[in-house]
C-alpha cells in the first residue's frame, strides 16, 4: 500500500478542497501508472469508478462532494487509505466513528447450510443440491398470508 506524506492544510473554501482532492487523485493515478503500468481505463476497471468521474475529480470539476462510497472504492482499488482522500476533502472526523449496527442473529439452519457449503468433506454434488434448493426457495412466489397462518397453527 502506497503511503504519501501528503499533509496539505485544507481551508474551508470549496476551491481549496477541490484542489487538494484533485492533487490526491492525480498523485494516485501517477503512482498507478508508474508502479503498475495501469492506464486510466485499467484504473477505472480496478476501482469501479468511471473514467469520467475520475477525470472530473482531477479537474476539480464537481458541484457537490464526491460520494464517499466512490472515494472508498477508488482508494481500495489502488491500495490507498481512504482516510487520506477524506482528509484532502476536509472530511476529517473529530467525533468518534459511528459503529455499524450488529446484524440480526442468523437462523441456525441457515448457518448449518453455510458451513456445509464451505466444508471440504461435503461432495460437490451435495453442495450443488444445497445451492439449487436455496435458489428455488429464494425465488419462489411468496405464500399467501392465510396459508402461512395455517402452518403456524398446525405446528
Automatic annotation (TrEMBL):
Keywords: DNA-binding. Residues 29-85 form the HTH cro/C1-type domain. PROSITE patterns: HTH_CROC1. GO terms for molecular function: DNA binding. Pfam families: HTH_3. InterPro entries: Cro/C1-type_HTH, Lambda_DNA-bd_dom_sf. This is DNA-binding transcriptional regulator, XRE-family HTH domain.
Amino acid at each position: 500500500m502506497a503511503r504519501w506524506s501528503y499533509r496539505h492544510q485544507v481551508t474551508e473554501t470549496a476551491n481549496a478542497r477541490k484542489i487538494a482532492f484533485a492533487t490526491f487523485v492525480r498523485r494516485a493515478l501517477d503512482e498507478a501508472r508508474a508502479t503498475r503500468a495501469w492506464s486510466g481505463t485499467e484504473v477505472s476497471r480496478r476501482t469501479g469508478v468511471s473514467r469520467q468521474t475520475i477525470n472530473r475529480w482531477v479537474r476539480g470539476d464537481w458541484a457537490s462532494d464526491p460520494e464517499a462510497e466512490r472515494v472508498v472504492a477508488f482508494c481500495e482499488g489502488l491500495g490507498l487509505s481512504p482516510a487520506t482522500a477524506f482528509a484532502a476533502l476536509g472530511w476529517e472526523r473529530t467525533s468518534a466513528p459511528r459503529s455499524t449496527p450488529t446484524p440480526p442473529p442468523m437462523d441456525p439452519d441457515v448457518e448449518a447450510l453455510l458451513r456445509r457449503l464451505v466444508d471440504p468433506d461435503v461432495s460437490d454434488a451435495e453442495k450443488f443440491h444445497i445451492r439449487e434448493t436455496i435458489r428455488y426457495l429464494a425465488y419462489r412466489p411468496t405464500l399467501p398470508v392465510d396459508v402461512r397462518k395455517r402452518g403456524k397453527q398446525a405446528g
